[in-house]
Amino acid sequence: MKMHGEWCVSQRGRIGLIGRIGLIGLILTAPLIAQQNDAPELTAKASEAIDRGLKHLLATQRADGSWAAGETGEREVAITSLALMAFMSKAQFPGSGPNGDALNKAKDWLLKKAKEAPDGYLGTSMYEHGLATLALTEMWGMTRDRSDDDEIQKAVETAVNVILRSQNKRGGWRYQPSADGGQDTSVTVMVFVALASARQAGVVVPNETIANVVTYFESATSQQTGGFNYVPSGVQKNDSIACTGGGAYAAQLAGERGSEMVLSALRFLKERSPGIIDNNFGHYFYGHYYAIHAMVQAGDEYYAEWYPLIRDALIRKQGEDGSWGGNKNKSGASGASYETPMAIIILATPHRYIPIYQR
User: Fold this and answer.
1) Which of 24, 63, 153, 251 is the most exposed place for a label (fewest CB within 10 A)?
2) 85 closest CA partner among 147, 131, 16, 121
3) Mean pLDDT, the chain, as a whole number?
4) Domain count, the chain
5) Cα–Cα dist 264/229, whole Å
6) Phi, psi (deg, nearest 5) at residue 243
7) Which residue range forms the structural domain that includes residue 234?
8) Residue 287 pLDDT greater than 80, yes or no
9) What's the pLDDT tens digit per position in 121-174?
10) Of residues 211, 248, 311, 261, the one with CA closest to residue 3
11) Is there a domain that residue 350 lies in?
12) In sequence order, what are the beta bridge partners of 334?
């Protein structure tokens, strides 16, 4: 199906043996393809940073298989989902590889949360719900235990229904699963990327939903700069670097890859480089998590210019313990940060193992 240009659907090969054959083929050919296109690859330092980050995640995993920002489970659904994605970005999946048992525990914990949510709502905000939906979709068909597929499919379909019924009439989403709860670009991006992943996996997402979110993104674009507003106003003072990266990426996934809306957002980001790469801004890791994938979707020229800059910046920002963003929460207690798995996912971009991050 097509809506507002071509909907970006990759041949994912999710289910059963087909999924594993597809992944093996990607693992064998992705580096070769990238080299042929003269795209920047992982450096030894980047690979080492990824491994140190994953080691830190293993060290901070809780006994029940989850990750959280603190001892009382703050952001546990979001950080567990991101941590799973971080390992998957290096082709490590539940039940497979050296960390298969640890990832199995994380997968089982997330599925348990899904079973305990009769209405399908995962976590405490639509941010968490979107990340959980994304992680489950990207795991679908990629676990060692084939009996997981039915459970994951049910969880994904139920989670998608929550997203669909929560879309605001003007096209966006807000913090809670309510169609009357307002909308903002940050939540809308997080939720829509999950929908894009689910649709790539074969879950039905109505064309009307896609058309409405494109309308929302158009309303959130600054007419002066081309950046995206956090809350639609169309004026420069509400521009957000993080929302611009996210808005560009989500709009690309909605079929708007070559539109002026997306191209102007990419210009907005490039015009502010290297400042926004070298220097921290509000929601730095969150913003760059989206920006790098917007550059991937934009093509090799954009990606080849952007990736080495953010790669080297993240290497410089990594803590001695392998984390990013620190390992203490606001109260000073130990915990896992969402910044660490996001940084790993960014650094691992050349691998292209996760379908939603492929072009």
Assistant:
1) 63
2) 131
3) 88
4) 1
5) 13
6) -70, -30
7) 16-357
8) yes
9) 999 999 999 999 999 999 999 988 888 999 999 999 999 999 999 999 999 999
10) 211
11) yes
12) 328
CATH code of the domain containing 160: 1.50.10.20
Structure tokens at 166: 């929560």
Helix 126-139 vs helix 148-165: angle between axes, to the nearest 10 degrees?
Answer: 150
Number of neighbours of residue 295 by Cβ within 10 angstroms: 26
3-state secondary structure (DSSP) of residue 240 = strand
CB of 227 within 8 A of CB of 238? no
Main-chain phi, psi angles of 113, to 5 degrees: -60, -40
0.85 surpassed by pTM: yes
Structure tokens at 153: 């499919």
Report residue 92 as tokens.
Answer: 């490590």
Residue 288 within any structural domain of the chain: yes
- The pair of three-digit structure tokens given for residue 25, joined into one six-digit string: 């083929």
Residue 306 has pLDDT above 80, yes or no: yes
8 in any annotated domain: no
Cis peptide before 274 (omega within 30 of 0): yes
Going by C-alpha positions, the residue among 359, 324, 320 that lies closest to residue 345 is 324
Give the integer Cα–Cα distance in Å for 224 and 354: 35
Cβ neighbour number for residue 27 with a 10 Å cutoff: 13
Over residues 299-318, mean pLDDT? 97
Please report whether residue 5 resides in a domain. no
For the record, the structure tokens of 73 come out as 């489970």
Q: What is the mean pLDDT of residues 70-99?
A: 93
Q: Radius of gyration of the chain from Cα atoms?
A: 19
Tokens of 105: 């525990």
Residue percentage of the chain with pLDDT more than 90: 75
